[in-house]
Here is the input.
Amino acid sequence: MSTMIKPKHQRLVLIVLALVALIGAGLLAAIALRNQAAYFYLPSELVAKPPEMGRAVRLGGMVEKGSIRTQPDGVTINFIVKDDKARVPVRFSGITPDLFVEGSGVVAEGRMEGTTFVADNLLAKHDEKYVPREMKNMSTAEAKAVIAETK
Amino acid sequence: MSEATAPSKRPGLAVWLPLGLFAAFLALVFVGLYWPADREVSSAFIGKPLPVFDLPPATDERPGLATPVFKQGKPRLLNVFASWCVPCAVESSQLAALAKQGVEIDGVAIRDRKEDVARFLGQYGNPFARIGKDDLSQVQLAIGSSGVPETFVVDSKGIIRYQHIGDIRPEDVPMIMRKLAEAQ
Amino acid sequence: MIAELGLAMLWMAAALAVLQLVAGALALRPATAHLAGIVRPVAMLQGVLVACAFAALISLFLSTDLSVKLVAENSHSAKPFIFKLAGTWGNHEGSMLMWVTIMSLAGGFVALIEKRLREETLIATLAGQAFVSLGFYAFLLLASNPFTRLAEPPPEGAGLNPLLQDIGLAFHPPTLYVGYVGLSIAFSFAVGALVTRDVGPAFACAMRPWVLGAWIFLTLGITAGSYWAYYTLGWGGWWFWDPVENASLMPWLAATALLHSCSVLAARNALRTWTVMLGVIAFSMSMVGTFLVRSGILTSVHAFAVDPTRGTFILALLAIYIGGALLLFALRAGTVTEGARFAVVSRESALVFNNVMLCGILGIVLVGTLYPLLTEAMGVKVSVGPPYFNPVSAVFAIPMMLVMTVGPVLRWREDTGGRITWQIAVPALVMAAALLAVELLLAPINLLPALGLAIAPGLAVASLQPLVGRNLRRTPLPIYGMVVGHFGIAVALFGMASEGAFSTERLAAMNPGDSQQVGPFKVTLSAIDPVAGPNWTALQATVAASYAGAEPIVLHPQARTFANPPGNRTESALLTRWNGQLYSVLGEEGEDGRWQMRFWWKPFVPMIWYGGALVALGGLLALLGRVARDVRRLVAIDKIAWRRERQGR
Here is the structure.
């Protein structure tokens, strides 16, 4: 019976265990979130305060008119994402979403490599109601145009 | 299981922890749900007169749209739409219902082509008295519209009284009728 | 007429729910205890009425009665039968009615069959259930009446979103609803038990089938949802840690923990407060999930029409139910007597460990899901994805799976490691061998997939150990259920790890006639043709895929365009072999006339979903075993009562 937990202590032990797990999970989550959460950038923010190389971030803005260039491989495209203050070159390999067109809004998930933003994924809205929440504060003429285009 | 004997043990603080965490969660989502009041662009143009404009017709079936129309002594609806906009198609039945109740509706087609507008009106009905063609979104921006569709209630003197952002749902129709009555 | 009848039945059902709540609450006082007799019949009648109301709505949808607003907005006479049927719950109002229907039917069923619980506790449970349903009745009747008529019926319905015209999506939400609502029964049991301070094995036995049933549906729902996202989104991924997905995962995690703590309570009368707490948490997570999805407070890649006012309503319900239950818990937890004790090395301890780890993962997922909301309140916008969720949840999942290998072979109450040396050694050796093989024989792969590939075989072997030395014919079904369920986890883990470690991707612009090599496959684009379906047109690629030089098999990925309402969808084409899946997507035509094609070869990826199905099957076996035993017990009790009656005469 030596390994038996004392009656008085059992509930205490269980509570302590649960608390430790909870706090552990919380701390772990806090640390990981600090390092792993992908921050959302507007082009001007990206240019003013670029994230570290290779860090996963999101970039949201307008696809500049006439900027989409398809590379010879047929699946890599280069284009410019801009807001009213800055322009960021973006590279993406893959199948673009249906609503990805020049002059429309886009959210690109990816990372900075040198001065180019390499996107792993382009998010377009899935239904007519979807406007990226992150864009709601753009509050410039660009934002209005983004909403107009993606609405 | 006889549990009638209440144990003398006092409940620890730990039993309140779930409730505390839950309260924190509620507070967080409450803020999230109500804080972003800026999600809807509230119009700075309400109470202001319509800017002066004169748009060419967007379709051969209807005349174009110019500011004097709005000073004829009757409140009107100004609907900003586009043939390429899905919610605009969705709200067409509500616009038709409004037109049926005698509301005069004018349209501004944003960055559109004549043949597309004609196809759109053919498919979803044409509730408009006039349709202006706004290829550069000039009028749209001048009246403080941030997207399509949007609908403005303009009173008999050409003053903007109400701005409806997004498509008009069936449940919005009575409210728009009320705004029109108020604008009389 | 049918619509008015449906509405009337809904109102009557709501009135009965009020009666059920009031009578139930009064019956708990000695002065009005005689009211207890009406609670059960009222609960059953309420279930029947609301089921009739739901049937009325289904019939309106099947006959496409366009004078009903909901039908006019969400259906279309030209839609295939199955989507007319699914259209009933493919919208907000209908899905809420379905929710209430399942909830009330389940409540009625509890009233009909539950005999083990003390009558008082059962009455309190039914009153709790009525309280929960009342909120939803109020929501339906006051804010989202599904039976509203239109003054002028439109000539044709407004159709259904083409994205929603998918057989998987038609039946996926109801599966999850059944799971959520099953957890509401567990919640009511927990509340009932707290009210009467009657937390014991009888409570656990009464609650367990409901938890099991809910858990089976949640497992199926998540598995099917994952597969649906895999083949419709066309991104080749099977889990995106998207808020909508997390919303279904969190109740599952809580229900899994509850299931295991329930069996401790039922078998050993331990973990009393903990089980009650989990009963509350599991349903909380269902509500939180529904809230997050429906309120649009978080952005999601999955399409959902969202509405903040609905969010407010669900939030209010959430605050009342969960806040109330947690308050009750805080007040009563101290007065629930302590359960039986157990040693540090015992089956109970292993299950406690499993519970704590599951709750850890739950916390991780919840925090990660809500974090964007938290930072946004401080003015910073972030999104949280796999780089956070994968490693952090693995910190809890890996120890849990290691303990899972020994837990089932440990004895209740007290055990020693020495007794089960072999049972520990065999899986450990298998894992070590697998890890060695992965590290030495294969190209370098990431840590998590490598660990997964090592743990999965060991866990598979360990999961079968409870059967060793047993007479397989006389082994109770719940034991088989546990074995199959744990084996399913191992299978799914192997699929996930293999997908993470060995997937190869090929993205290319191709002319008809061009070929590409994808893993062991040689794929050739033969042609691109327009095709038409019942309500869509599409561009269809014809792709011949040849596995390691074998006879080619033809695949047809499509890019579909829907007419009413307008929309596009890529339809990926899959080729499944025993050892993996070839996934193909057709993209756009480039300026030079070449077509973008995307292929993945994903070795053993279907095992993820086979594993999920096995887990659900394990749950089903356990449920059948429990129910069969309960039925036998009821029959035996009836027999004894009947004999006594005869002797009495």
